[in-house]
Amino acid sequence: MIRTLGLLSILLLGYMTSFAQNKEVLYDFQEIPQAIMVNPGINTIYNWYAGIPFISGIYAKGATSGLTVNDIFAADGLDINQKVRDRALNSLSERDEVNGIFQVDVLNGGFRSQKNPANFFSFGMYIEGYALNYWPKDLAILAYEGNADRLGQRFDLNDLNASGQFINVLHFGINRQIKNNLTLGARIKLYSGILDIKSTNNSGYFETTLGENNLLRNTLVSDMRLRTSGLDALLDANDNGSSVAGLFTKRGLFGGDPGLGFDLGVTYNLNDQTVITGSLLDIGLLYHTSDVTNYTLKGSASIEGVEIILPDALNDPNADVWEDLVNEIEELVPFEENNNNYVSFRPIKFYSSIRYNFGKQGEPVADCDCDYKPNSGDRSLYYLNSVGAQLYAINRPRGPQFALTAFYQRRFAKVLTLKATYTVDKFTPTNVGLGMSLQAGPVNFYIMGDNLFSYGNIADSNYASFQLGLNIISWERN
To answer: I want to staple 393 with a disulfide (CB 3.0 to 4.6 A). Which of 215, 231, 307, 350 is the partner?
Structure first.
């Protein structure tokens, strides 16, 4: 029972705090100002916008692969130990994962240059946290079943692969209409790391074989490390009754780990009705220098347990053979701690799309070779409908992950726009999403969600999300 509870703790810790990072409903949703955050090169269709602080962008998304909470805890009359064995230990692989993100905009705004209206500037600050945990298959089997019946099996230490980060991001971007049919964008990001935990690129194995002097021989070959920044200070603040929120604020406002990143984006109109887009986000890194603690376990050892050789052992009856065994293991496989600074890279994200507009409701501006012409970049607004496809990718420790999305967008004058999506990825092949942008005078409200058919039973879902926000927009361009 204890082993079951321990394994369930691992499952709950990962699966209840997991989020995925694809914002497929928001991407290329021109009516929503926050769409510029996933493509700095989007066609901007407003003069300026101002997000309502802390509620202009609230985003959370949850995803799991291979297992849901309901798979373990459903009241189906099955023994929970058997469900853990069948649905977790025997079914999940080391490529199954939980991963995630949440974001909250503190500030978000943008404005068009008065001197050169081809330029649109955006700025803001947001808080972000993400987590990634691959299923530690071999280690879970070792913890749950032990090694007694698995002689000669090597338990891979590389299965331990997890990371998490909490940061504050200050950003400033420029979006420029280069030609009538081409818009480019770039954004610089200043990171301030609050918390970082990372244990990746581990290697080695644990193996049990028949011994020579004792019954069993255990062999450990290990090259493992855990890097942390900001963790000890947060734990100390919590233990001492200090303000954890105050420490978060201090580290978030550039009192934490410094970092630098960039976003790039492009929109190209092939013709009046066909548009292609692309963006690269979070090309950057953080340098962890404050409150750093690293742990390493590196070396190899083969131990057959306590060896008592008679009659020699009778010569020193006070000898502590157990302490001698522990000292021998620590000498062969030293567990060390240091405070060395380290660098972590942000997970780079890639978006691209192709969109076809139809159902004309006005006359688009004619093509020209000019650098900028008012209203020339927002051709999609002259059409009631848009259909297309989007591709998303993100780099991960076990290789890149991809998602493919088909979408349909419908405009109802300048008041209401709806976007429906269908996404296929490693988490679910039946993800239907819906987004709405509502314009009431200068006030813009948007809300969107993914995998809507799963909302009836979230516990049995591999994927769920929501996003919403409130902005003030000036639509009149110079």
So the answer is: 350
pLDDT of residue 91: 78
Q: Would you state the pLDDT for residue 8?
A: 39
Q: Which residues of the chain have pLDDT under 70?
A: 1-21, 68-71, 73-75, 87, 213-214, 305-332, 361-380, 458-460, 476-478
- Rounded to whole angstroms, the Cα distance separating 107 from 124 reads 5
Evaluate if pTM is beyond 0.70.
Answer: yes
**In angstroms, rounded to a whole number, what is the distance separating the alpha carbons of residues 199 and 158?**
10
